[in-house]
Amino acid sequence: MGPLLLARSAIDRSAALRGDDDWLAGAWAEERTRVVVVDDGQALVRRDGREARLVLLSPAEAPEGARHLLGVDDDGVAYFSVTAPLAGGETGRGGPVPRIVAPLGAAALPEGEPVLAGLRQVGALLGDLDAGLLVYAVALDAWHSTHRFCPRCGGPTEVRAGGHVRVCPADGSQHFPRVDPAVIMLVHDDADRCLLARGPQWPEGRMSVLAGFVEPGESLEHAVIREVVEEVGVNVTAPRYLGSQPWPFPRSLMLGFFARAVSTELSLDPEEIAEARWFSRAELLAAMENGEVRLPPAVSIARRLIETWYGTELNGDW
Q: Taking the model in full, what pTM does it have?
């Protein structure tokens, strides 16, 4: 069923170049360099047949804003991200640009002019290069937006290493982008049913697999077992790893697992789970066809877990 859609990339992150200020300046001056502009987790995209493509600008076209190195491709083209408002056209001028707020297919994207969209909306439509660039740019932007001050002394920090380090000039401490590991797991029982649940903040019918953050000093496997029993009261064993992908909302790394239930009676934590149900494959398909259940979008690792258990791709999402 292909790669995890937000785990794709087609550039070298070029860590060795981040500290070379002369190289960074030269790369920014190069006409071939391309820039993705990020505005509140979204970027300009344009329809290209059945795909969406990022609108990548030259440095001369890019607006002013925080600049971060993303990497270099096999042809030697450097890629940067810039954080800046995009209220108008491709360079922030002109009329309003529509913002896309829900996942959609390529046919639903308007022809011609670009729109503002994020990973949840168009991540599944982007190619490997664009998907990797946008995930990276959004993740860096989210980290910088919440780490402007030193956690040790409270003083303002300065950006270094092409956007990959913040340094406190007062105490000399260095601070690096962080990710929050979270386990996400499809629980199945000996009758080969899967367990899906709905969070209290979700509308009726929106269901997914269980997930939760890894706690300090905890292994991934223990986190899987703990989260399932905490959320739905089911004991599981033998967590089996599927894969991982970034989920920069704002800085999660989702680590996907399957886990076998050794108990099936449900006892829900009402603060976390509003509804949970066991589904056979036939029951899940019927519930989707009659609109009773809507699955997570294709861009999510939750969807991949469900489809891997089901055995094929499923149509329809949130």
A: 0.90
